[in-house]
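In the previous lecture we treated proteins in isolation. Real proteins rarely work alone, and many bind small molecules. This record shows how such a complex is specified: first the sequence, then the SMILES for molybdenum atom.
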Amino acid sequence: MAAKAPIQDIDDDARDMEVGPPKDWAAGVPGVLHSMVPGIREMGARRALTLLTDMNQKDGFDCMSCAWADPDHRKTFEFCENGAKAVTWEATPVTIPTAFWAQNSLSSLLSKSEYWLGMQGRLIEPVYKPQGEDHYRPISWDDAFTLIADRLRALDSPDEATFYTSGRTANETAFIYQLMARTLGTNNLPDCSNMCHESTGTALGEVIGIGKSTISYDDFGKADLIIVMGQNPGTNHPRMLTALEEAKDNGAKIVAVNTLHEAGLTRYKNPQRVRGIIGRGTGLADQYLLIRAGGDGWLMKALSKRVLEAEDAAPGTVLDHAFLDEHCQGLEESHEHVRSLDEDMVLRATGLSRAEIDELADRYLHSERVIITWAMGLTQHRDAVRILKEVMNLLLLRGNIGKPGAGASPIRGHSNVQGDRTMGIWEQMPESFLSALDREFGITVPREHGYDVVKSVQAMREGRTKVWMAMGGNMVSAVSDTHAAEEGFRNVGLNVQVSTKLNRSHLTVVDEAIILPVLGRTEIDRQAAGEQSLSVEDSVCAIHATRGKVDPVSDQLKSEVSVVVGIARALWGDDGPIDWAGFEKDYDRIRDHIEHVVPGFDDFNARLREEHGFILPHGPRDSRTFPTATGRAMITVNELEYLERPPCRLLLQSMRAHDQFNTTIYGLDDRYRGIRKSRRVIFVNPDDLRELGIADGQIVDVHSEYEDGVDRVVHEFKAVSYPTSRGCAATYFPEGNPLVPLGLTALGSNTPASKGVVVRLEPVTG
Ligand SMILES: Nc1nc2c(c(=O)[nH]1)N[C@H]1C(S)=C(S)[C@@H](COP(=O)(O)OP(=O)(O)OC[C@H]3O[C@@H](n4cnc5c(=O)[nH]c(N)nc54)[C@H](O)[C@@H]3O)O[C@H]1N2
Ligand SMILES: Nc1nc2c(c(=O)[nH]1)N[C@H]1C(S)=C(S)[C@@H](COP(=O)(O)OP(=O)(O)OC[C@H]3O[C@@H](n4cnc5c(=O)[nH]c(N)nc54)[C@H](O)[C@@H]3O)O[C@H]1N2
Ligand SMILES: [Mo]
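The predicted 3D structure, ligand included, written as tokens:
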């Protein structure tokens, strides 16, 4: 195979950083060219073309780069620059040779960057690190399964084992994985969603009875107003820009609410249109609100207040009375509460002017169909759940739920994070699901809630976790408080990582560890009954098949399904109530069980084979039926928190650069923000820099401050003057994670509050 892994690591030194002006547009020709070149160079033209033309197509595979929905009318190239990077990264022909493990000790690998680790190529053989040794070495699949089963059997309690899932895992795998954990007897099923849209699930669950988006793909084209909050689609959901452009063509207005100016929200050059190639592209945001961190709940409340005042001025004409009377509860209490909202507090908490808020209120009042979309800028705050309940309050007042062109649209991150939850990956699945499992398999699964991500780190640190297993992901780098997390991981007896590529979660191990290499989305999965398809659920509850298209990079790889089955059979043999071996032969059998356990999956196998798959039922979206305790949507009263910023401190968020997928780093550039050759940047408003006496470009240490008094610090970052809102700074994740205290989490959802950390900058001299 032609390509070689890099021998040199890339040295990320803030002093090498080149800083140019941020761009005011996203995508377009450079985007697509950037996306094609590395793929073709590394994989060879044929493999690259097969993959890029099969991506997100019927009969093809689902792109793993985000959970954006597929339109019914797909284009030949239904992918974006970052999707192409994700595919290239996975489908690379570079593999890690057996000699690598003897040549590289764990201690030496720990000094390498995530970039270098990922660039070593695909993991292709199971490896094992015995206690007391500093090297992994090859182990057979059977020995690995037996060893894992032995350690699990030896536990004093099944709750000493924890089973993590990252959101790339397909529905079928997720279903049998949670079944294995629960058959063993634990609900310890943390997942990346705990760090992602958990706040969304909590808030929407309370308000409308279901934690998922209330819109379908076509609603974007029917909306009058789309408010995009706390989200950077130009980098993280690039295909969403096409939907926004189409909405604009149909007359919609777009408002961006963000702590930063993001290129992709300003202007879009569509690579599939002539206008995008040669023209200026489409201006996207009609109004851009540069909000103070964590201020979004206050903004929503201020808008609700204006809606209620408009109703007072012209009774019966502003609120959607028919909807409120028939479907909602709590309007009066909320009305009372919002009426007394302190406008000065609103201005302080949002950093916006009254005129800006009035303008958005006016837009809202004059739009019949409004969609509000959001992502991590809203969910990763201490007050996230209340912020999202205020989003819902605003939508409910004018009936913007369950009608065409309107609704709440959380945009999910990992490509199947939503589906994993539907399949039971959650430490607190409801009784209805657990009893359905019992009935279907003739077992009794535990009822006590298990650990989420933050609780599982706490359990590891306290020595309560003996076996840690991860179906994908890189939790040690993804979770907050990196050093605390590393300490926890080093306490675990056996660490089992099911992975495609090497990352730091394989290295922060002390006792025993095993890496099990698996097929990726792009690769053909051959089992006894023939080539297998899997299924995924996107952000708008659409279920469709995904099927690998190229030969696996090695014939030693197993599918994720085979890995779960291998461990389950080593634990329980073939005589128990569950036919594990049958699951592996033919994934249709897994789907038959899903059909019996999970509502909405009737006739699963047949419908999955239909052209576009199918959409899961959703009461609020389909018929304005709300599966809450009262059967009504809840308008709620929320006392919002004001995110304090002590003098000479900044509110820090950690977010994604353009050249990364979560903890996977593709390169050191962040093209749209004008940053090249280093990721060690902290973006600061020019007025804050002046006030702090720090020069643009100065090298600083960043310390976070939290009530536990621990000094959390990252060293030698370059302070760069940038259009962020006053007092609000930004850095990248995972580099910023050591600054986020483990205990700083969203109330109600326990999501690390990685978008609202109080920090101080200390200039580095010399
Ligand atoms: N290429 C690529 N695609 C991805 C990913 C990736 O890493 N790379 N990750 C995937 C995953 S798992 C996820 S969850 C999504 C994440 O998608 P995003 O949520 O877009 O990801 P972030 O980079 O965290 O961006 C957060 C945005 O919120 C803004 N923000 C921060 N704080 C606030 C605030 O208080 N209020 C407001 N209004 N805005 C705020 C930030 O400036 C930034 O624009 O993307 C998915 N897609
Ligand atoms: N400070 C800060 N922290 C954050 C965030 C933030 O915005 N700021 N965002 C949070 C969010 S939204 C999320 S979702 C989490 C992400 O947390 P995770 O999902 O745990 O992390 P990833 O980086 O997506 O995982 C990458 C690894 O997954 C493995 N992998 C890739 N493809 C496959 C596959 O097909 N199968 C298997 N088995 N393994 C595979 C590879 O080994 C790769 O190294 O991070 C969270 N952490
Ligand atoms: Mo995410």
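Summary for your notes: The longest strand covers residues 712-721. The longest helix spans residues 296-313.
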